[in-house]
Amino acid sequence: MARLNGLLIALDGPAGTGKTSVGKAVADRLGYGFVSTGEMYRALAYTVFAKHIEPEDHDAVLAAAQGLRFTFARQPDASLKMFVGGEFLGPKLHLEEVGNVASRVSTNREARRVLTEKMREVGQDGGIVMEGRDVGTVVFPDADIKFYLDATAEQRAQRRFLQLKETGQKPDYNKILHSIEERDHRDKTREASPLKPASDAVLIDTSELSLEQVIDTVLEKLPHHAS
Ligand code: DC
Q: DSSP class of residue 150?
């Protein structure tokens, strides 16, 4: 069934595979909106953190998820700027602690259901590249096309290391690798929507590819009328 604004493209995979850069570039090329579902989990984590809620406190985390009000404003670079309760949280969502709490609150099955509904509202009319962990498996099993990006933990740690170094920080490679392995383990073994490729996803191993090569691979796989 054709969607109103174009395709709904699912882009899943573990952290550090370049999903965000690839997704933004692909969305930009197609004139589509880009949505990061990880940012939505991060918004929940940020709220949980700010309210001093224990990430494992099931009911309090669920209530926090139910209380989140997301609005999205289209930006010139195709991303959809996300506001939470009218506030732009931006870089605060990308703090390391927030990422860790996000991984913990995202094991809450009920809270996932609440956020999944919100994701469906944003994506259902298409014209969207949606990036995450379970977009192709749970949020939109009927996505028009699904991609799953992967890379070795070492490669991903190396990329993160370079990113942090570029921003003037003094990162510790081993710590980064450890944190990536820990997060992968949690994301892949959780009971609710574990991270895994959809059976009909296009798998792309980005370990040996440049960002441009990954973007081209994705664009080549799209149905002709989209690009
Ligand atoms: O992609 P990210 O690092 O911003 O995501 C943060 C956390 O959110 C990640 O550890 C797992 C969780 N997440 C999820 O469970 N499902 C999604 N669709 C996206 C993110």
A: E
